[in-house]
Amino acid sequence: MRRIAIYGKGGIGKSTVSANVTAAMADMGLTVMQVGCDPKSDSTKLLAKGGRKETVLNYLRDNGTVDLDGVITRGYGGSLCVECGGPKPGTGCAGRGIIAAFEALEDHDVIGEHSPDVILYDVLGDVVCGGFAMPIRNGYARDVFIVTSGEMMALYAASNIAEAVDNYAADGYARLGGIILNARDVESEDEIVAKAAAEMGTGVVMRIDRDPIVQECENRGVTVVEGAPDSRQAGLYRKLAERILELSEDSEGGMRGT
């Protein structure tokens, strides 16, 4: 089982990248579980086509426990879609909510129940602390990929994420797999991101070009892989999925397996 986390600054396109990678892997015949770790709970919307079930936290609040059938949605290609959720705005800490959601999923042996080939955590990376550090700090994920552009604030967040991964790597937790350049057409963007990646001690896994087909498909509520399968952009996402599989480690065990 591949245990992968995709991090990035809010708004950088990490959820779009994650959903398209999941769809591409599903087309390879793999069973992929995507776990959204953002209080907006929008990580899997392009996979689930609006058919998403309750978030883990909402289900916990309403029922006092978690029923896997109540929180896991079957999405595109048989993908397994889970949203951790978050507190109502202004009423709690999103990071603590993610911790509670992860503990509930582990208590119910979500991995053992569904045996996915890949589990992909889509994680907000503006602040790498508390619950947002769970995938790399507690051994849930093994390989971390960071989505960024050549914009200053996106690179600043990417650097912080890379430092966090490095800090936990010494304890045998997650390792940095590389940078995914989600291009914003910044001047000299390739050179800027390559230089930043080298400073983080890693490299650029792939460049994903900016293309209006992404927004067109999102407006229809589908991934590019599903909505425009013959497009060049879908080909880029498929190639990225292949690269991530090549660079990640096949691991045994459950959510905390090593």
Largest sheet: 8 strands, mixed
Unreliable segments of 5+ consecutive residues: 252-258
Compute the separation of the termini in Å.
10 Å
CATH topology: Rossmann fold
The CATH superfamily turns out to be P-loop containing nucleotide triphosphate hydrolases
Question: What is the count of distinct domains?
Answer: 1
* Individual helix count: 12
Question: What percent of residues adopt helix (DSSP H or I)?
Answer: 40-55%
**CATH architecture grouping:** 3-Layer(aba) Sandwich
Observed structural traits:
disordered C terminus, 8-stranded mixed sheet, 258 residues, 8 strands, alpha/beta, Rossmann fold
Descriptive account of the structure:
- With 258 residues, the chain is an alpha/beta fold.
- It has a single domain (2-247), classed as Rossmann fold.
- Helix content is 43%, strand content 17%.
- It is built from twelve helices and eight strands.
- It has helices at 14-27, 45-48, 56-63, 68-71, 94-107, 110-114, 134-137, 152-169, 189-199, 212-219, 224-227, 232-247, and strands at 2-8, 32-37, 73-74, 80-83, 118-124, 143-148, 175-182, 204-208.
- It has an eight-stranded mixed sheet with strand order 3-4-2-5-1-6-7-8, sandwiched between helices.
- The longest helix has 18 residues, at 152-169.
- It is globular and about 50 Å long.
- The protein starts with a strand and ends in an 11-residue tail after the last helix.
- Mean pLDDT is 89; it is low at 252-258.
